[in-house]
Design goal:
The complex is a heterodimer. By secondary structure, chain A is α/β, with parallel strands linked by helices. Chain A contains 17 helices and 11 strands. In chain A, the strands form 2 sheets. Chain A has a 7-stranded mixed β-sheet with strand order 7-6-5-8-9-11-10, with helices on both faces. Chain B has a domain of 180 residues: 3-Layer(bba) Sandwich (FAD/NAD(P)-binding domain).
């Protein structure tokens, strides 16, 4: 009996501190400013515990039964605290109010626990033993929680599951108390049922926390989400704020309508207008049809072939009224053929030749995409070029990922292309880089199709100058058996994203 | 670094879901070399041949050695031969399979880029356009076929690290021993024996016969490590992994000469790369068999090879017609493993002495995996090894794919069944598919919890005689040497005869036998050796 009581006390103390830590961690994760969040959360929590302790005087008869009820409540509110806060973050107008409310309720309930426990035990122990033993267990539990939380719980379980799991433990304590004090508790059947229901709810929470996390994530975009769907290959999310439409693939920004014309004009026209007679054009990637829109501006173009892996993307951007308006109906233009296939395989199996190829793949952020930036790939591409053919490759940022960018240049050169690196400023991306790979002498075009908003021959000439903070650095070509590019990319973007 | 998703959601929910899912039967099949025909051979009941034909040369066995022998004959302008293979598809140990996701191997999954002595292998690779040219006197390989990065990773202390040497948690002493070991191997790699030949070379016939070096064959690899004072558990695991991988034996079961050959006969840096195909060495077998065309007869079980007045007579059972046939040939090349050769070749059948050849049994399983899990730490590689694992880990047959669609993969799980070969073989033949499945999944799930939920198919293949075991004293012992010699018009070729089972040796033995036959028949040829 005594051991069971100590174990319960220890558990109660551990759970109490865990909820405090979960709230603090969540607040600093969602709101930033760790010191402020932790201080205010801990302050509010301790204050609420004081309130709880004071309120305990109003609990009169049936102490053990009340304690069981408090435990179930702590388990439920504490257990679901992180889930609730997470889901609310994207929706609630004043998240902070809710945060402190939850912290206060959990704190007050936790504040009730120890006084009630002491009163339950007062007839069984001397006062000096009671105080010493109860407080010892309380502080030991706190130590245990504070060590467990950062080292095991957050890395292994995450915040949602940690709170839910400890909620279950609280309910477990309630059940144990119910059992230990079965002689003095009268309304046992009702409490037992409540216990079971609370435990079931928390278990369900654990089972679905994965989906909750992704739901919460879906709600984390800054603007209103107007479309979100998972295709077989990626998660497609479209947001809108006034006139600004943004496309995210797996959470990465692909374009913003505020400045995508800069990106796509710079991607397409420096190669397309430089070709004498670009009749056959191939676009690899670019399922949003925006590069295709630029290609179709040039009346000399006879046929456009667009190869994009994801049929959901190309379907969306050819049938959805608002989205096909963005690309000017490019994907349903009679000149275009849309093919949903793997670029590499399609190139291998096809022996058509192209005058201009526009390569608009995702950044080389993993080894599978990295293969599309290798000497092997560019060699294959060069075999699909008509005489005098020319290609351009989107190549990440020469400013943020300088080594990555110049590695793409070195790779194309190793595959036999004469390269002409250039860059443009796209506000939502920053300074962005492209590389032209030519098989014949290249000259910056002196004329572009009408209707461009960004590119002029003068601007274009300037794009080929690289200031010293992004000028060429020595780089090894990216080969399939080394895949150095992915490693450069990971290192350089980690530095930007973590500010380290 | 924790991803945001892990930070928020954690992995417990999926584990709970998996626990609630109940037992789902994973479909699959238990496969192996053709048991029905193998059994027929052991029973030894065959009708008298109903037809007789004359073919100048018969090759018995369509594995890497037999196909290489045929390849050499054909390249030398001698096209009048047949290859008899009992399986439905030639290839022997280089067997392979295919499903809607990928081709996959049932045998070896790679070929190390061949060194300068493996001339015939290089010639074959040039023909297959795997070698595309030459630069600074070295072959240039097709980039697509070299193993794409990342090549290897190791699961140790709860996470994946890059490379196979256990670095995570290694002490300074461990790393010092590793460096000492690599330095010692580097010295052996450069060492030349008193006869002027390299200490270790592949094919092994090119190695030095310096008695001081051959003496290493008398030691076990474990004894050699002890002698040299290598105690680091990480290093010893690493070396044992190599022995299990290449020879199917433990440090105690494998000779030090073989264990050192594994490292010292291969190059380093860019000379230490792998050539990789989805179906493993099945690619080479397939290409070789294609080049021989209808000369390869499958479902053809040779049951009696005997000297005859004009040369050799070969009786075989044709599974398709259920009839026995006879071929009268001037020469035969028996490219079957020794334990089979001893059943079918008359003079060997009558030899009462034990062969001295031991074979390590193997289990190979192919798993079709939906949304293959990556695990924690280093990114998934081609070869994914578990430290102190029972098996050798898994190889991703789809690793070389250029597709961005990585929703499904086929993984090949390898497990040498070490210990007393005969007992392990007997036990392996009794093991059911359900038991193999459990052995395989429980081993892999140590590194990838919840994997079984994503496995949609698991086939297992038991190789009762997977690899000849280079136990101490075997490679340079008299039994192996004697076995390699022809008996009159009957020649022998199999990697067994080199004492260990790798493609380069099988190829060398096949080409060597083919050249001996060409010489005996007075046919001019240019040597590939």
């Amino acid at each position: 009996m005594t051991i069971a009581l100590y174990a319960s006390l220890f558990m109660v103390a551990t759970c109490g501190l865990i909820y405090e830590l979960v709230a603090g961690a969540l607040a600093s994760y969602l709101l930033g400013d760790t010191v402020l969040q932790f201080s205010t959360v801990i302050g509010a929590y301790l204050f609420a515990m004081g309130v709880g302790s004071w309120l305990s005087r109003f609990v009169g008869k049936g102490l053990a039964a009340r304690f069981v009820q408090v435990e179930i409540l702590v388990g439920l509110v504490g257990g679901f605290s992180s889930t609730l806060l997470f889901l609310a973050f994207a929706h609630a107008a004043s998240f902070r109010v809710l945060l402190y409310l939850v912290v206060f309720v959990v704190g007050a309930l936790v504040g009730l626990e120890i006084p009630l426990m002491m009163r339950i035990l007062k007839d069984r122990l001397d006062f000096k033993d009671l105080v010493s033993q109860v407080l010892t267990m309380d502080y030991l539990g706190a130590l245990f929680a504070s060590v467990l939380f950062p080292l095991l719980l957050v890395p292994k379980l995450g915040l949602l599951n940690t709170a839910l799991l400890f909620g279950l433990l609280n309910v477990g304590v309630a059940a144990a108390t119910l059992h230990l004090f079965r002689d003095v508790i009268h309304e046992r059947a009702g409490l037992r049922a409540t216990c079971a229901a609370a435990a079931a709810a928390l278990c369900l929470g654990l089972v679905f926390s994965g989906q909750i996390a992704s739901k919460a994530e879906g709600d984390m975009y800054a603007d209103e989400v107007i479309f979100s769907r998972s295709s077989a290959y990626q998660r497609i999310v479209l947001t809108r704020w006034k006139d600004d439409w943004r496309l995210f693939l797996n959470g990465n920004l692909q374009f913003s309508t505020m400045d995508e014309y800069r990106y796509h004009e710079a991607l397409v026209h420096p190669v397309l207008s430089a070709h004498r007679a670009p009749r056959e054009v191939l676009i690899l990637g670019g399922g949003d049809g925006l590069a295709a829109r630029e290609v179709l501006r040039d009346p000399r173009v006879g046929k456009v072939t667009l190869v994009d892996l994801d049929p959901m993307m190309t379907k969306l951007f050819s049938t959805h009224a608002a989205l096909s308006k963005l690309n000017g109906g490019a994907l349903t233009d009679p000149k275009i053929t849309v093919i949903n296939a793997d670029a590499y395989r399609w190139l291998e199996q096809n022996d058509r030749r192209f005058d201009v190829v526009i390569v608009d793949f995702p950044d080389p952020s993993n080894y599978a995409v990295g293969k599309l930036y290798t000497t092997a790939f560019y060699r294959l591409l060069s075999r699909r070029l008509a005489p005098g053919g020319i290609i351009t490759v989107q190549s990440t940022s020469p400013l943020f990922a300088r080594q990555t960018y110049w590695t793409v240049v070195a790779t194309m050169e190793a595959a036999g292309f004469a390269t002409h690196p250039y860059h443009a400023y796209v506000p939502s991306f920053g300074e962005w880089g492209y590389v032209i790979g030519a098989t014949a002498p290249y000259r910056v075009p002196a004329r572009f199709p009408p209707g461009l908003r960004y590119l002029t021959p003068e601007i274009a000439r300037g794009m080929f100058d690289f200031p010293s903070d992004m000028s060429r650095v020595p780089a090894e070509p990216n080969r399939l058996d080394t895949q150095v590019l992915v490693q450069h990319y990971e290192r350089e973007w980690a530095r930007i994203n973590h500010g380290g | 670094m924790l991803t945001r998703r892990e930070f928020i959601g954690g992995g417990l929910a999926s584990a709970l879901l998996a626990g609630c899912g109940g037992e789902r039967e994973i479909p699959g099949e238990l496969l192996g070399p053709n048991h029905a025909l193998g059994h027929k051979l052991r029973a030894g009941v065959f009708d008298a041949p109903s037809k007789t034909e004359r073919v100048p040369i018969v090759i018995v066995g369509g594995g890497a050695a037999g196909l290489s022998a045929g390849w050499k004959l054909l390249r030398s302008g001698l096209g009048e031969f047949v290859v008899l293979d009992l399986e439905a598809k030639a290839g022997g140990n280089a067997a392979w399979g295919e499903n809607e996701v990928s081709r996959y191997p049932w045998g070896a999954h790679y070929l190390p880029v061949p060194g300068p002595h493996a001339r015939a292998v290089r010639e074959l690779l040039r023909e297959l356009k795997v070698i595309t040219g030459e630069k600074n006197g070295k072959p240039v390989y097709d980039e697509d076929v070299l193993c794409h990065a990342p090549e290897e990773r190791l699961y140790i202390h709860g996470r994946w690290q890059d490379g196979l040497y256990p670095r995570l948690g290694a002490s300074a002493a461990d790393l010092k021993e590793r460096d000492r070991f690599h330095a010692e191997i580097a010295a052996l790699r450069r060492r030349v024996g008193r006869d002027g030949r390299p200490a270790f070379a592949i094919p092994m016939e090119n190695s030095s016969r310096d008695p001081e070096l051959l003496a290493l064959d008398g030691l076990s690899m474990a004894a050699w490590l002890d002698q040299k004072g290598y105690r680091s558990p990480g290093l010893r695991w690493y070396v044992e992994y190599a022995c299990r991988d290449d020879f199917g034996g433990t440090l105690k079961e494998v000779s030090a000469w073989a264990g050192l050959q594994y490292y010292a006969a291969r190059g380093e840096g860019e000379d230490d790369q792998f050539l990789v195909w989805p179906e493993g060495n099945g690619f080479l077998a397939r290409k070789l068999a294609e080049s021989l065309g209808p000369r390869v007869r499958t479902g053809a079980l040779a049951f009696d090879v005997a000297p005859d007045k004009d040369g050799v007579r070969v009786d075989y059972y044709d599974a398709a017609s259920g009839e026995s046939r006879r071929i009268l040939a001037r020469r035969a090349i028996v490219c079957a493993p020794r334990f089979v050769a001893r059943r079918i070749v008359k003079p060997l059948r009558e030899d009462p002495k034990p062969s001295g050849f031991d074979y390590a049994p193997w289990l190979v399983a192919n798993l079709t995996v939906d949304t293959p899990p990556a695990g924690t730490g280093a990114a998934p590689a081609w070869d994914n090894v578990i430290y102190l694992g029972e098996g050798l880990g898994y190889v991703d047959a789809t690793h070389q794919s250029f597709s961005l669609d990585r929703r499904r993969a086929v993984w090949t799980y390898y497990r040498p069944l070490t210990g007393d070969p005969a007992a392990r073989r007997a036990a392996a033949y009794k093991t059911t598919l359900a038991e193999w499945r459990e052995l395989c999944l429980s081993d892999l799930e140590r590194s990838l919890p919840g994997l079984r939920e994503r496995v949609t198919r698991l086939d297992a293949w038991v190789w009762g005689h997977g690899m000849v075991l280079p136990k101490p004293g075997f490679i340079w012992g008299s039994e192996r040497r004697e076995a390699a010699k022809p008996l009159g018009a009957i020649h022998f070729a199999h990697s067994d005869l080199s004492g260990y089972s790798i493609f380069e040796e099988a190829n060398d033995r096949g080409v060597r036998a083919a050249e001996a036959v060409l010489a005996a028949l007075g046919k001019p040829f240019r040597s590939s050796l």
